[in-house]
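Quick log. Single chain, no ligands specified.
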Amino acid sequence: MYGGNMGNMMKQVQKMQKEMLKMQEELQQRVLEATSGGGMVRAEVNGKKEVVSITIDPEAVDPDDVEMLQDLILAAVNEGLRMVDEMTAQEMKKLTGGLNLPPGLF
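-> predicted structure:
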């Protein structure tokens, strides 16, 4: 009675798995840019959550206030990582049609 529906559902799940893998590969290639300090520090983060570049405006370098520069770098990197999470969540939502699937399901 349910055999046909179950087989159809399994095909749909397999198709979704393939689409998710393709999407994950594409997302890993993307690079997002985040800034802090009004653009004085810029961090580029890829979809694998790897920092690929940090650019610091020379005006942000004050030998008497290294702590501020460290905070600006942390803020830019953390914002970049947050942006990757947000981008991934948005793309997953498009793929799953808004289904709230638990992470790691596919």
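The helical segments are 3-29, 66-96.
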